[in-house]
Structures are given as structure tokens and as C-alpha cells.
Amino acid sequence: MILLVFSLVFYAWGEPKYIFLMIATAFVDYVFGLLIERFRDRWQSKLFLTLAAVITLSSLALFKYSSFFSENVNSLFSLNLPSLKLALPIGISFYTFQALTYVIDVYRGSVKVQPSFYKLLLYVSMFPQLIAGPIVRYSDVEEQIEERTVTLKNISAGVMRFSAGLLKKAIIANFAGQLTEKLIGGDLTGLSSAGAWIGIIAFTFQIYFDFSGYSDMAIGLGKMLGFEFKENFDYPYISKSATEFWRRWHISLSTWFREYVYIPLGGNRKGKLRWYINILIVWAATGLWHGASWNFVLWGLYYFVFLMLEKMYIGKILEKLPRAVGHIYSLIVIIIGWVFFYFDDLSKIKYFFKAAFGAANGFVTLTEKTVIVNYAVLLIIGAVCAMPLLPRIKIFAGSLSKTRSGKVTVDVLSVLFVIFSLAISTASLVGNSYNPFLYFRF
Q: pTM score, two decimals?
């Protein structure tokens, strides 16, 4: 009950009027969960599941996609449908999927129906991961909501994880964002080739450290409270294919679409043509989930093309080649993909590629060169921290802790890391008035 109260206060602090929408979403799925259980194995249960899905997704459609729909219909058919231009409720894409996951799993019989509304509402509104994920399935925390243990060991591990995530966001992501904005955030007509590539590479670091930083903070806070949330990132930039990248990037989202869209559509069990269509639907939906804009649809379709190419043709070739070749290929695909993600204006995408591949304004301008030199250390830090160094540090710390003096050393260094992270992150945040997470907008 304490966690629920603080979760609702946390959400209301940033979104006081839309808290009722979140509560209503949880209540709808709570009621339909009870009805599905009441009429289990009868035709009514499928009807209630359908109603739950339609009602739950209708709020997401209204707030996130209504303006996009009306604007495109108006443009296509020369109509004058009104655009509602509703403010997007914080975290709606995440808590909607979580609430829907619960009612689908109840229908499948993979989780027990939750008789307590406040416990289900806690699952939907849990503040550590409410705003930007990871998307937590009800089955992941079903038992932990009922009973969990808070230990000093987990609190300590949680503080470390939270501090690392905060450092990722406040230092690496924010400064990478500054570099991105300086190079490709404005008018692109004078953009040079080097400016284009360094700008999008900076965004590549920004979005990773911003989003994985939030996930680290959520997982750390969960540990402090006795919850174990699943990992959402697994060093995606070391991938050697686009397929591997999506096994490592935003794991909770890709898992959700696989379990609740791709497999229910039939997966690869209904012929090759149907398989193509199913994958196309999943990636178009993945793009649209990120935002009501054509650039996100293009981004989803972009990955659909590469994933299909890898499944049918180049995947086997990549496996035979040295890992370095696959890694270079993967990075090129990922970085170019972020172009479609970053620019919501399609004309700017054209200008970007013209600069990146055509060198219309030369290799680099003097202004861009100064900016890049000033942020060179940041780019190096970003590249190093994107590699799996932390697991090796943990292994080394574990071996060092086997002796008494080694354990004292590790403990002292851990405390100093937390103090350093909190101090430098706070100083950076104070110096910048507003530091939203990128995935707040989705």
C-alpha cells in the first residue's frame, strides 16, 4: 500500500490530471481479468479479452495517434477533420502494454487472476519503471508483489546500479545530446560530411546511454524495494548483425511484440508469405509504438528489410565472416537507422544523407571541427562504456573480495563510486535546468 501511494504521488507530480486515466486503465483490465476467470473455457472469456484489448488500446490510440490519423486523412482526401492535439500522458505506451499483458496472460492461464485491485494497480503504476520501462510482465513480479525480501545486500547493489544509470544519463547522454544538437539539431543546409556522421554517432551514444541509464535506475530502485526486474539492454552496440542487435536492444519491447503480436499472428507456422506479412506487421507496429510520425514507420520498415535480408540471405554469410566484419556491418546499419529515428521531418532526412554521402558542403567546416574537438573525449568515453567492461570489473572485484583486505578495498571503492556518481551527476543536473529522458516522448 505504501508503494502504491508513493507511485501514484510520483506520477501525479508530473501528470496530475492523467493519473485518473492510468487508474481507469488498470481498473478496466482488473475487471475483465475477473470476468475471464469467471467464464474460463467458455466463449464469453474470448469476448471479454477482446473488449479488454479494444478499450485498453483505445486510450493509447486516442492520445497518441488521433492527430496523426486526422492529419494524414485530411492530406490524402482534402478533408478538414479536426485535430485534437491532445497532450501525451506520461508513460502511456509502457503502462498500457503492461496492463494488457496481465489480462492476456490471465486468458492464457499463465498467471493467476489478481483478486486485489490495489495490487494490480501497484503493478501498473510502480514508479521505478513506470515512465520509460522496462516493460515488466505481470508474471515477472506476480510473486514479488505478494511477498518479497528487502536486504542490505540488494539495497547496496541497487544503489550501485542506480548511480551507474544516473551517471550514464546526466553525463554521457546529456553531453552527447549537446553535441548532437550542435551538429545536426538545426538547419542542415550547411552540414558537412564529417558533421553529419559525428552528429548521428553522438545521437547513437545519446539514445543508448539515456535509455539504458533509465533502465539501470529502474532496475536499481527495484532492487532497493525487493523487486527483480529483467534486463533491458545487453551491450547492443557489440552486435554483429541487426538480428543480434534486437536481441540486445530494448529487450522488454522486442519480447513483448514477439509474445503478444508475432506468435498470436501465427509466427512462421502458416507459410512463407504469411510469415513475411507477420514480420512486416510487427516492425510497422514497433515503429509506430515509438511515435505517431512517418519517420518512425520508416525506421521500423528499415529494420524489417535488414532482418528479412539476414534471415534469407546474408545471415549465413555473416556467420562465416570474421566477427569484426559483422560488427562493422552492424554498426553501419544501426547508425544509419538512427537517422530515421532522430529526424521527424522527412526533408531533413534527405538533407542529412545528401551531406553524409555527397559531401555537398565539404568534409568538415571550421565551426564543426571546433565543436568535434571539444567533445572528442566524450566520444571516446562513450565508445569505451558501450563495451562490456562492467561484467569483467565485477568478476575482478569478486576475485579480489576473496581476501579480507581485498573486500575492504572493493567496499571502499564502491562507496567512492556512488559518492562520485551522485556528486558529479547532481552538479551536471543543477547546471542544466531540464533533463528529460528521451523515451518520455514515447
A: 0.91
